[in-house]
Amino acid sequence: MKKLIAGAIAVAMIPAAANAQDTTATTAPDGTTGGFVFEPYVGVMGGYHDFDSDGRGPLSTNCAPQSGCPDGGFVEGVAGVNIPFGPVFVGVEGNVAKGFEGLDWEYGVWGRAGVRAGESGLIYGKVGWQWVNTKEPQGDDDDMAYGMGVEFGPSDIGLGGLAGLGTGGLRLRVEASTFDFQSIRPAAGVVLHF
User: Fold this and answer.
1) Which CATH number belongs to the domain containing residue 68 in this structure?
2) Tens digits of per-residue pLDDT, 105-153?
3) With 50 as the cut, is the pLDDT of residue 193 above it?
4) How far apart are CA 53 and CA 42, in angstroms?
5) Rounded Cα–Cα distance for residues 120 and 191 (Å)
6) pLDDT tier at 101 (50, 70, 90 boundaries)?
7) Engineering a disulfide at 131: which of 58, 63, 107, 173 sits with its beta carbon 3.0 to 4.6 angstroms away?
8) What is the DSSP string of the chain?
9) pLDDT above 90 covers what percent of the chain?
């Protein structure tokens, strides 16, 4: 079921990605054009990590009726850098999350790629490696993780003059990821681009 939902989201994002490629913006958010530009960012996000209860994988074997799955909310810090190439970009990102309920800590490193949308928006997919530590004994695991998301800034929603934030600055991020297709991990937060 979760694979079907992830596939439906990916298909729904195709028209938006195609439209984003039609934008004529070829400058980086800091106003520079051409050359090799780095766009570093940091952010704070929150969400919920929900594991499958079908018994697949080490983490879902903890989904016994007496203990439940190692599901839980989290607060996460992210940091990374994007490298724009006209209307597309690539980048790397790291995350550290403190969990609640069944989760303890999560760590990850990701590669990202996507398209720029509007003046400051991003539509992206990401692939990486995630470490998940639960509060259950023998409940820790690490594996491939996959995700997709969008970021949009004040100028994309008609608030370009807000605190002088144009195409750079503060952006809102909404994303969903999965831990080796054994979970769904929606998250939202704010990201500050430099």
Assistant:
1) 2.40.160.20
2) 999 999 999 999 877 789 999 999 999 988 876 578 889 999 999 998 8
3) yes
4) 33
5) 12
6) confident
7) 107
8) -HHHHHHHHHHHHHHHHHHHHT----B-TTS-BSS---EEEEEEEEEEEEE-SS--HHHHTT-BTTTB-S-EEEEEEEEEEEEEETTEEEEEEEEEEEE-TTEEEEEEEEEEEEEEETTTEEEEEEEEEEEEEESSTT--EEEEEEEEEEEE-GGGGT-TTGGG--SSEEEEEEEEEEETTSEEEEEEEEEEE-
9) 42
Domain with 132, as residue range(s), is 2-193
Go through the chain and tell me how many residues it has.
194
> Residue 186, Cβ neighbours under 10 Å: how many?
15
Query: Does residue 164 surpass a pLDDT of 60?
Result: no
Residue 50 structure tokens? 């929900």
Counting the structural domains of the chain, the total is 1
Alpha carbon distance 66, 42 (integer Å): 39
CA of 38: how far to CAs of 17, 79, 80, 178, in Å? 22, 13, 10, 27
Name 70's Cβ contacts closer than 8 Å, sequence gap at least 6.
51, 59, 62, 102, 103, 132, 134, 135, 136, 139
- CA–CA separation, 164 and 92 (whole Å): 27
